[in-house]
Amino acid sequence: MSVQKKQIILNEIAFWKQNKLLPEHYCDFLTALYAQGEKEEIEVNNQAVLEKEKKKASLKMNGVIFLIGLITLAILTALLTMTSNILPIIFAGVAVILFVYIAIKLAKNNSLLTPLLFVFSALLLLGVTFKIWEAYFISEPNILLFMIIANCILWLLSGVFLKLIYFTISGIVGIIFILVYIAYIYIV
């Protein structure tokens, strides 16, 4: 057996012993069996191989989530602050399409990144909606209400078809709030 394979096995046995997954005397026996008297050559590491890989994957995932969140925040900031520039709308549209495409690809793997990409896409789409209203329809507040209702319906349909409860709830609550607002405006 190669030294690398022995190292992996001995690391796993040490992890089992440390976390009391097997009785201590079983772990000692397995360590002696796999070390084959080569105790000096092979150093046993306390962390299991899978645990190290999970930590590396978790750090990568956190970095990706941070980067995507930063991109979303930058585009939303550009949408809200730039008044006469169409470039943020184009960036936001491209980001929405890209985020949804990546989320659909990652949905097969049940990745943690999938729901975050959907949420970031929804936020960017809402920001684009406000920017389009501001650029073309600012004198018509009713159009904004209909655009927000369209966003809420999109959230509701996305929630139902993709089985995402947070989108379903957001769509329903958004529609209810807008309808209550419309009723309040026209009644009072």
UniProtKB/TrEMBL annotation:
<keyword id="KW-0472">Membrane</keyword>
<keyword id="KW-1133">Transmembrane helix</keyword>
<protein>
    <recommendedName>
        <fullName>DUF1700 domain-containing protein</fullName>
    </recommendedName>
</protein>
<feature type="transmembrane region" description="Helical">
    <location>
        <begin position="61"/>
        <end position="80"/>
    </location>
</feature>
<feature type="transmembrane region" description="Helical">
    <location>
        <begin position="86"/>
        <end position="104"/>
    </location>
</feature>
<keyword id="KW-0812">Transmembrane</keyword>
<feature type="transmembrane region" description="Helical">
    <location>
        <begin position="136"/>
        <end position="157"/>
    </location>
</feature>
<feature type="transmembrane region" description="Helical">
    <location>
        <begin position="111"/>
        <end position="130"/>
    </location>
</feature>
<feature type="transmembrane region" description="Helical">
    <location>
        <begin position="164"/>
        <end position="187"/>
    </location>
</feature>
